TrEMBL record:
It is an enzyme of class 3 (hydrolase). The gene is ADAT1. Belongs to the ADAT1 family. This is tRNA-specific adenosine deaminase 1. Its cofactor is 1D-myo-inositol hexakisphosphate. Specifically deaminates adenosine-37 to inosine in tRNA-Ala. One of its GO terms (molecular function) is RNA binding. It comes from Physeter macrocephalus. Residues 104-537 form the A to I editase domain. It holds the Pfam family A_deamin. Keywords: Hydrolase, Metal-binding, tRNA processing, Zinc. Residues 253-269 have a biased composition (Polar residues). The lineage of its organism: Eukaryota, Metazoa, Chordata, Craniata, Vertebrata. It catalyses: adenosine(37) in tRNA(Ala) + H2O + H(+) = inosine(37) in tRNA(Ala) + NH4(+).
């Protein structure tokens, strides 16, 4: 598939080091070249993908993985990049050697409906792989803070300049990996005439028939067409079929939305040439845009909405979207929207911000082999928020590096479909989600329908029926960290008032809330927020 490239039009206020920067000094490859040092790359997209695939196969258990030849799943992870010891820039003739370590991983394809949400915080509302990986990453960060603040052991954190606050070691960076393009805006990709197809086509019946929906990421109704070699004439004839890189069917979804101004309209006046191609039918260079890959995520109430017209004008780009649910509407924003939010607010969330001098940002996002557009990713993750300002000190719209690997996830829908015999029935998404964190105690967590796999109805509400990455369990880990530190050494944000509930602790993270408020007012005004009574647990 031809990749459409794009650039952020405004320099970021602050960003983490990119993939081609020196891990020892942070200089870019161009800076090294200007100083007489050789340009070098710390890692490649294929190295990140291979590391994650190997970790998935070696570390994650069979429990929670797809049933062979019948199920598929999605994979995401956070990888820590760190220069090996004793490296400095005084040896420009030597490329920087780095260690790459998976510190969190998630699999999953589903969300729960609005009616199944619980005010006790003990259920996972969103079990898409990206969200599971990020919540698993938060668990890892909590453990690392415990090492630094309580045990005084080696950690990814070092003391900050402000009282009792911590910051990430300057030589570290984190790369986010996903085996697939995030659902939502990043999945709206122009399809050019005569381009090779990188993955299985999706039938028009699936894309337009929500009644067949079985999960948030599912394959088409039994499609008799097989995954062909991308160079074969059969595959090329299929290029006019609408496809959904996020694997979603279409279904209306919404919930309680944030009051405030809506996101600015996306019109031809602010679209790049590549984005405009999706609605005008012509790409840069004159190639004809025959259609767009489609996302099953629906526009939130208050957004302009999709046109629904056939062909390239089917979707409007740049809009907030909600993940679909099977009959029961969800309140879960698309993964494109969540990644864009993390790119401004950081991945740590509000609770951990109490202990941090600055947010924990991703330096890069790597996508596995699947339908992909550099332009769509740039638009969805960076472009929609690039003019948000001012933001509190330490916060900023990040110029996150976006790359794609040529390596296919072996348990993706496309890979499983290609191996499946014709008489083995239709593929379905795996119902389980796996969470893994680089923590010493109980790193694994396998869930289904938002609870630990195997949980019975009678057990719901008990301690053993909580996922380790549920809101209430992450809050419990945060409270445990707090109780291990003497109160006179608490950050000021936790000492000014008596805090009790999860909601109160989150709201007390003032800089985070200021940044989140600015992001909502200026870019994401229609973001769906859960009512406060869903955050009153203790």
């Amino acid at each position: 598939m031809r990749l459409l490239s794009g650039k952020c039009q405004r320099p970021p206020e602050r960003r983490a080091p990119a993939a081609d920067e020196c891990g020892a000094c942070g200089l870019s490859a161009a800076s090294h070249k200007a100083q007489g040092a050789p340009a070098h790359t710390m890692w490649t997209a294929d190295e990140i993908a291979r590391l994650c695939y190997e970790h998935y196969g070696r570390t994650l258990p069979k429990q929670g993985k797809p049933e062979p030849n019948r199920e598929w799943t999605l994979l995401a992870a956070v990888v820590k990049i760190q220069p090996t010891a004793d490296q400095t820039c005084d040896r420009p003739d030597r490329p920087v050697q780095v260690t790459k370590e998976v510190v969190s991983m998630g699999t999953g394809t589903k969300c729960i409906g609005q009616s199944k949400m619980r005010k006790s915080g003990d259920i996972l509302n969103d079990s898409h792989a990206e969200v599971i990986a990020r919540r698993s990453f938060q668990r890892y960060l909590l453990h690392q803070l415990h090492l630094a603040a309580t045990l005084k052991e080696d950690s990814i954190f070092v003391p900050g300049t402000q009282r009792e606050l911590w910051k990430l070691r300057p030589d570290l960076l984190f790369v986010f990996f996903s085996s697939h393009t995030p659902c939502g805006d990043a999945s709206i990709i122009p399809m050019l005439e005569f381009e090779d197809q990188p993955c299985c086509p999706v039938s028009r019946d699936w894309a337009n028939n929500p009644s067949v929906e079985a999960s948030d990421n599912l394959e088409a109704p039994e499609d008799k067409r097989k995954c062909e070699d991308s160079d074969s004439p059969v595959t090329k004839k299929m290029r006019l079929e609408p496809r959904t890189p996020d694997g979603m069917a279409h279904h209306q979804s919404f919930g309680n939305q944030e009051s405030g101004p809506n996101s600015p309209d996306v019109s031809s006046s602010n679209l790049t040439a590549e984005e405009l191609a999706a609605v005008t039918g012509t790409a840069p260079g004159g190639a004809k845009v025959v259609d767009v890959y489609r996302t099953g995520a629906k526009c939130v109430p208050g957004e302009a909405g999709d046109s629904g017209k056939p062909g390239a004008a089917y979707h409007r780009v740049g809009l907030l979207r909600v993940k679909p649910g099977r009959g029961d509407r969800t309140c879960s924003m698309s993964c494109s929207d969540k990644l864009a939010r993390w790119n401004v607010l950081g991945c740590q969330g509000a609770l951990l911000m109490h202990f941090l001098e600055e947010p924990i940002y991703l330096s890069a996002v790597v996508i596995g082999k699947c339908p992909f557009s550099q332009e769509a990713m740039q638009r969805a993750l960076i472009g929609r928020c690039q003019n948000v300002s001012p933001l509190p000190e330490g916060f900023g719209v990040q110029e996150v590096k976006i790359q794609q690997s040529d390596l296919l996830f072996e348990q993706s829908r496309c890979a499983v479909q290609a191996k499946k015999a014709e008489n083995q029935g239709r593929l379905v998404p795996c119902g389980a989600a796996i969470s893994w964190s680089a923590v010493p105690e109980q790193p694994l967590d396998v869930t289904a329908n938002g609870f630990p796999q195997g949980t019975t109805k009678k057990e719901i509400g008990r301690l053993q029926a909580r996922s380790r990455i549920s809101k209430v369990e992450l809050f419990r880990s945060f409270q445990k960290l707090l109780s291990s530190i003497s109160e006179d050494k608490w950050p000021d944000s936790l000492r000014v008032q008596k805090l009790v509930t999860y909601h109160e602790y989150k709201e007390a993270a003032s800089t985070y809330q200021q940044a989140w408020s600015a992001l909502r007012k200026q870019a994401f005004g229609s973001w769906i927020r859960n009512p406060p009574d869903y955050q009153q647990f203790k």
